[in-house]
Amino acid sequence: DPYHMKAIEIVRDSTRESPNLVPSAFKSRIVGCICEEDTAHVNWMWLHDGQPRRCECGHWFKLTEVAPLG
After folding, report:
1. Which residues are noted in the entry as Zn(2+)-binding (predicted)?
2. Which of 2, 42, 46, 50 has its CA 20 to 30 A from that of 25?
């Protein structure tokens, strides 16, 4: 998955200090959180480098740097 487009397995007990890590070769990235298993709604949000972000459902996310292609 060179573009890191596959869904990541989220940690249910994520916190600001221990967030779900989202790989990115850029300083920001848009991600979607499916807050409940049986929902069709996706909560979209921007993540920015160095700034953990909390979804409305309580899950925390943070970008982690990966090398760009090429």
Report:
1. 33, 35, 55, 57
2. 42
pLDDT in tens, 33-56: 999 889 999 999 999 999 999 999
CATH number at residue 36: 2.60.11.10
Distance CA(10)–CA(53), nearest Å, equals 14
| Residue stretches of the annotated binding site for Zn(2+) | 33, 35, 55, 57
- Please indicate, yes or no, if residue 49 is contained in any of the structural domains: yes
Q: Number of structural domains, the chain?
A: 1
Q: What is the reported pTM?
A: 0.86
* HSE of 60, CA atoms in CB hemisphere, 13 A: 11
| Binding-site annotation: residue ranges | 33, 35, 55, 57
